[in-house]
Each structure stands twice: as structure tokens, then as C-alpha cells.
TrEMBL record:
<dbReference type="GO" id="GO:0016491">
    <property type="term" value="F:oxidoreductase activity"/>
</dbReference>
<dbReference type="InterPro" id="IPR039261">
    <property type="entry name" value="FNR_nucleotide-bd"/>
</dbReference>
<dbReference type="GO" id="GO:0005739">
    <property type="term" value="C:mitochondrion"/>
</dbReference>
<protein>
    <recommendedName>
        <fullName>Oxidoreductase NAD-binding domain-containing protein 1</fullName>
    </recommendedName>
</protein>
<dbReference type="Pfam" id="PF00175">
    <property type="entry name" value="NAD_binding_1"/>
</dbReference>
<dbReference type="InterPro" id="IPR001433">
    <property type="entry name" value="OxRdtase_FAD/NAD-bd"/>
</dbReference>
<keyword id="KW-0520">NAD</keyword>
<keyword id="KW-0560">Oxidoreductase</keyword>
<dbReference type="InterPro" id="IPR017938">
    <property type="entry name" value="Riboflavin_synthase-like_b-brl"/>
</dbReference>
<feature type="domain" description="FAD-binding FR-type">
    <location>
        <begin position="1"/>
        <end position="101"/>
    </location>
</feature>
<dbReference type="InterPro" id="IPR052128">
    <property type="entry name" value="Oxidoreductase_NAD-binding"/>
</dbReference>
<dbReference type="InterPro" id="IPR017927">
    <property type="entry name" value="FAD-bd_FR_type"/>
</dbReference>
Length: 277
């Protein structure tokens, strides 16, 4: 794999523990949604691994969402990195819905299947990348065959410990709204769940809702379901047996999801799980 020269062009705190970095990488021309980068900041010798949150169409810009931790790369991002800092990055990873040889207008055998996305915490980065890719591909197929290609339903669960750790929620609300508008049967679902909090301040969704007479109607208009507790197993139970599952979260979440799906009879080929090492 080739290391590319990169420069930090923007740095912003998305939550108390998650830093967003936007990089400019002039020589990077391709990656697959859901892939990650090996990340170096010379003269430091450590290497960090972070999932890509932005779609390939944003190149040469690339976005990383990096959770604060004791890892040297993460600590450097949160405490030392600056706009203008020089980096070296290389792309890797194969846990993606898109094949490396797949043409954008090429139909494949999974096109008619429901896709189930499960993100836990900072695992939202690769999950969001694949969700963006799927919706973009569906939109292209509908544009190529107006009235002949129906929108395919998706299921999306995003679990975080507390509400202030919910990053990228504005984009998720907008993407789900577009999905609802395309899916006339309204079969798609998006759920935000808090695992360590018993209450939501649901006013954060109101700015994304269309005007209506009551707050309850406003929340419903967003199409987002707000839950409490560990909702993973109940969520997966509703998925069709032939659905494609894409999962990324803390190790226990990944392990529990994979074990549940295998016990349910879902074939391994329909389970794509991005693990943290």
C-alpha cells in the first residue's frame, strides 16, 4: 500500500470525546466506502488506524472522526494536531458493501435485499460511509430507470452512551428523510438509542423537522425513533432473514450481534462486521 501526503484543513470537536479532522490528500483518487486509513504524523513513529467517514466523491478531501483515547495517535489528534499539520496516510480495509471491481451501474445479486446498518459509538464512521454509498447507488438506479426501480428499504440503528455523543446526526436525519421520500411504502427505519441514559432532550431533532402543530408531530415528521437501553437484539429480530447486515461498534456489540444473527440462521456471507483491534 502507498502512503499519501496529507494536510489537516479543518479540526472541530463534534462531541465531548470525538474530534473531526478534515484532510486534503491530493494524490488519493480512490477508496471504498467503509475503509480505514493508517495515519502517521511525522516525526512521530506511531501509526493510528481510523475509519473514513466521508464518501469517495469528496476526494481530495477526506473526513475522520476520532474518539479520544489513550492511544498515541488519538491523543495527538485531540491535544497536539493543528490546521496545517502534515500527515501520511494509506487506505486499507475490506469490510465494505462495495466490491473493489464493482462498476457504479452494475447490478449485483444483493441489490434487492434489505440492508441493515448497526453503529455503536464511533463505529458510525464506516457505517455512515456505506449508508451514503447505498443510497447514492439506489438513487442512480432510479434515475436510470424512472418508475421501474423502487426504493429499497433500509434499517439503521445508531447506539451511543449519552446524547451528546451522537455525532453526524444532522446528516443522518437528512439522509433518512430522503430515503422516506423515495420509499413510498415507508418501510425504512432509523433509530437512535441511548445505552447509558434514561432521557432524551428531543428538541435537537426539531430543527430538522417540517413545521407542524405540536412537538410530537414534529418529532414524528423526522422519521427518527428515539430509544433507551440496549436495543440491538430487538432491532435485529425485525430484519428479514435474507438481509445484508453491516455492523461496527465496540467489541461486545459486534460479538453479540454476530452471535445473534448466526443463531437466527443468517449466513456468514450476509454479515459484514468491522472490528476494532
Amino acid at each position: 500500500m502507498i502512503y499519501h501526503a496529507a494536510k489537516i484543513t479543518r479540526k472541530s470537536l463534534a462531541s465531548p470525546t470525538v474530534m473531526i479532522l478534515e484532510l486534503n490528500i491530493p494524490t488519493l483518487t480512490k477508496f471504498l466506502p467503509g475503509q480505514w486509513v493508517d495515519f502517521m504524523a511525522p516525526p512521530h513513529e506511531w501509526i493510528g488506524g481510523f475509519s473514513i467517514a466521508s464518501p469517495p466523491s469528496d476526494l481530495p478531501q477526506l473526513t475522520l472522526a476520532i474518539k479520544n483515547s489513550k492511544a498515541k495517535a488519538s491523543t495527538w489528534v485531540h491535544t497536539e494536531s493543528k490546521v496545517g499539520s502534515d500527515l501520511r496516510v494509506q487506505v486499507g480495509g475490506s469490510c465494505t458493501l462495495q466490491r473493489d471491481d464493482e462498476e457504479h451501474d452494475h447490478d449485483n445479486e444483493d441489490d434487492d435485499k434489505t440492508v441493515v446498518f448497526c453503529a455503536g459509538g464511533i463505529g458510525i464512521s464506516p457505517v455512515l460511509g456505506n449508508y451514503r454509498y447505498l443510497l447514492d447507488q439506489q438513487k442512480k438506479r432510479r434515475s436510470a430507470s424512472p418508475g421501474k426501480v423502487a426504493a429499497k428499504p433500509t434499517m439503521f440503528l445508531y447506539s451511543v452512551s449519552t446524547q451528546d455523543e451522537l455525532v453526524f446526526w444532522e446528516e443522518l436525519v437528512q439522509l433518512h428523510k430522503e430515503q422516506q421520500e423515495a420509499d413510498q411504502e415507508n418501510r425504512s427505519r432509523m433509530i437512535f438509542s441511548l445505552t447509558q441514559s434514561e432521557s432524551w432532550d428531543d428538541s435537537f431533532l426539531l430543527s430538522s423537522a417540517e413545521a407542524s402543530s405540536t412537538e410530537e408531530e414534529d418529532i414524528e415528521e423526522t422519521g427518527i425513533e428515539l430509544r433507551h437501553g440496549r436495543y440491538l437484539q430487538e432491532f435485529l429480530e425485525f430484519a428479514p432473514e435474507d438481509a445484508i447486515h453491516y455492523i461496527c461498534g465496540p467489541p461486545k456489540m459486534n460479538d453479540d450481534a454476530v452471535a445473534f444473527l448466526k443463531a437466527k440462521g443468517v449466513p456468514a456471507s450476509n454479515i459484514k462486521c468491522e472490528k476494532w483491534w
